[in-house]
Design brief:
Shape: elongated
Order of helices and strands: EEEEEEEEEE
Number of helices: 0
Largest sheet: 5 strands, mixed
Helix content: under 10%
Distance between the termini: 61 Å
Strand content: 25-35%
Strand order of the largest sheet: 1-4-9-6-7
Radius of gyration: 22 Å
Structural class: mainly beta
Length: 183
């Protein structure tokens, strides 16, 4: 259409395999090792090609969910998921075993804008306990894309994180600003 002088580049993938992913359901969850925020060298990267729905979604259509697990090394972890495409990823974290899961949280975006990442900062993990999570694109027939996930261990909150730890500040009595506070 429009003449022979027009060129465009495209990708084509023909696949005759309907092989399922190893982590297509809870029993095949890929282990993610928690690392300190800012010190992770690489996350776990998996494509959702071949993923199917293992259970109903907590939001949207979970027709391409993939499963991961981690053992808590702290009572607070940040689970992070990003994709190479804007598929509005959904992140659901579970406690329990694959046969008896209890949803702890369901995170998604729903503001009319498409996103390629989602995070969950959870503070009630039990150290040494294994937790499961799944990710999927919220729309039906979501794009086939690569998902990258990390589980971060976050630093302890500062001593003044709660009202009881408030720091008393001295007010400057003139414009010299001799009392300056950083935080």
């Amino acid at each position: 259409y429009g003449g022979a002088d027009q060129e465009s580049q495209f990708s084509l993938c023909i696949n005759t395999s309907s092989a399922l992913l190893d982590n297509d359901d809870c029993s095949g969850a890929i282990n993610v090792v928690p690392c300190a925020l800012g010190s992770c060298s690489s996350g776990v990267s998996v494509t959702n090609t071949g993923a199917t729905q293992s259970m109903s979604g907590c939001y949207g259509t979970a027709e391409d969910d993939m499963w991961f697990k981690f053992t808590a090394t702290s009572n607070r972890h940040l689970v992070s998921v990003s994709t190479e495409e804007d598929v509005n990823p959904v992140l659901e974290i579970f406690d329990g075993t694959c046969g008896a899961l209890t949803s702890m949280t369901c995170r998604y975006t729903n503001n009319g804008t498409t996103y390629s990442s989602i995070n969950a900062d959870i503070t009630n993990f039990i150290i040494g306990h294994t937790y499961y999570y799944r990710v999927y694109g919220s729309g039906s027939a979501s794009s086939k894309t690569n998902y990258i996930t990390y589980v971060y261990t976050l630093p302890a909150p500062p001593s003044n994180d709660e009202c009881t730890g408030a720091i008393l500040l001295t007010v400057n009595t003139d414009n010299s600003c001799t009392n300056i506070y950083n935080g």
